[in-house]
From TrEMBL:
Source organism superkingdom: Bacteria
Nitrogenase/oxidoreductase component domain ranges (all copies): 17-391
Protein name in the entry: Nitrogenase/oxidoreductase component 1 domain-containing protein
Alphabetized GO MF terms: oxidoreductase activity
Organism: Phascolarctobacterium succinatutens
One Pfam family from the record: Oxidored_nitro
């Protein structure tokens, strides 16, 4: 009998709303207010996303450093779909300005506003002239020909054009580009810690986490580091970095996602090269290697030689096997087989198989062939939860944590699972 999983994520194309993207791009920019030209429920959904983010932060024993900016809705109703909703929008903008005294308003348009063709720009222009408060609008409308990152990057572009101006560079300063949980998230904290080893200071995280009054620092930074992953997010952030370099001479680092020890080493070397401090990069590498080795001395007595199976069901865009294969080697686990789950079409399976065979000489199996391997394994590392109560499983996250701290956390999860007296269950790292 073949291996069964609890669920598959098999979407080939994302489908999302552009309005939460606008909201997230400015969510913690003190002095801003976001207005959704939409029914009330749309703002509720975006707020729910923000609450989920806060819960995730708390679960990791962290806390947000400041609150999110106000999010309002023009509260469009059924009759507005017939007669238009510009009057509601104008009333909402006036209320926002008079109540919150913002330094800038951002308007995100809903599907309804896009379908009925409300002239949002004209309303924004009239209210801006009356109150002398900048109001930014976006062309994308909810799900209509756009998605989350269209809203995110369009409002980011508007902020750059409207508020960022040439200024004197601040020596040894770095600007972080992207979100990834904000300044209090694991990614930004690890990057900031390593950059401090190089003697440089992080002066902000753009967009989303700099007050409106601080946007001049965007051009003041000598360097920029993209907190990208892979795919659409990284492409958009790289374009922002390229624009900063072209207009303000900001050197940037992109294209390296420091997940796993090898990628972390490459990232540190690239940072040293960007800063012109290659020798210092070698010293930083040595310190990080010592941190990793200290943890390995603790883990290896338990992990060495344990029978391990790796189950992969994500496409290459979302999962690269090289990082977890290196973790397996560092822990000296005995990898008995790699199983490609039944979530692939032909081309995707061949692409993953090619990379797996380049990175490892371990036999690759189908789900039909791999059931016995899973039954005999001490631990199973998997991208999908398996329907097997006896298998001791480590669920490989969609967004793994970065640098040595992230590598150690993954190793610790494997170590703790192997130490457990219980055979079975899923551990989420």
């Amino acid at each position: 009998m073949a291996i069964k999983t609890r669920r598959f994520y098999s979407a080939r194309k994302s489908c999302s709303c552009s309005m939460p993207g606008v909201w997230r791009a400015v969510a913690y920019m003190d002095g801003a207010v976001v207005v959704f030209h939409s029914p009330r429920a749309c703002a509720h959904v975006a707020r729910t996303m923000d609450i989920n983010s806060q819960y995730r932060t708390l679960s990791e024993n962290e806390r947000e450093q400041w609150g999110s900016v106000p999010l309002l809705s023009s509260q469009m109703q059924e009759k507005d779909a017939i007669f238009g909703g510009v009057a509601r929008l104008e009333k909402c903008l006036r209320f926002a300005i008079e109540t919150y005294k913002p330094k800038c308003l951002m308007i995100a348009n809903s599907c309804v506003a896009g379908v009925i063709g409300d002239d949002v720009e004209s309303v924004a222009r009239e209210v801006e002239e009356e109150y002398n408060v900048p109001i930014l609008t976006v062309e994308c409308c909810g799900f209509l020909g756009a998605e989350y990152y269209d809203g995110y990057f369009e409002i980011t572009q508007k902020l750059l054009e409207r508020f960022v101006k040439p200024c004197t560079k601040q020596k040894d300063s770095v600007l972080l580009l992207g979100d990834n949980g904000g300044p209090w998230g694991h990614y930004a904290k690890e990057v900031t810690r390593i950059l401090q080893e190089f003697g440089v200071e992080v002066i902000g995280q753009f967009p989303g986490y700099m007050a409106m009054d601080e946007l001049e620092k965007v051009a003041a930074a000598e360097y920029a580091v993209v907190l990208g992953g892979r795919g659409q997010t990284h492409i958009g952030l790289r374009k922002v970095a390229e624009q900063l370099q072209e207009k303000y001479g900001t050197h940037y680092l992109a294209d390296i996602y420091p997940v796993g020890w090898q990628e972390t080493q490459d990232w540190i070397i690239s940072i040293g090269r960007m800063l012109g401090r290659e020798q210092l990069a070698q010293q930083v590498l040595k310190l990080e290697q010592q941190r990793l080795d200290e943890q390995l001395q603790h883990f290896l007595p338990v992990t060495e030689g344990k029978k391990t199976v790796l189950c992969i069901g994500r496409i290459l865009r979302y999962f690269h096997p090289g990082n977890i294969l290196q973790t397996i080697r560092l822990l000296r686990l005995n990898l008995t087989g790699i199983i490609l789950l039944d979530s692939y079409d032909g081309d995707e399976r061949e692409a993953m198989l090619k990379v797996v065979q380049e990175k490892s000489d371990v036999p690759v199996y189908t789900t039909a062939e791999g059931e016995k391997l899973v039954a005999e394994a001490d631990i199973v590392l998997t991208t999908h939860e398996l329907q097997n109560k006896e298998a001791r499983q480590i669920f490989l996250p969609m967004l793994p944590q970065v640098a040595v701290a992230g590598e150690v956390k993954m190793m610790q999860g494997i170590y703790q699972s192997l130490c457990s007296r219980l055979k079975g269950g899923v551990r989420y790292v």
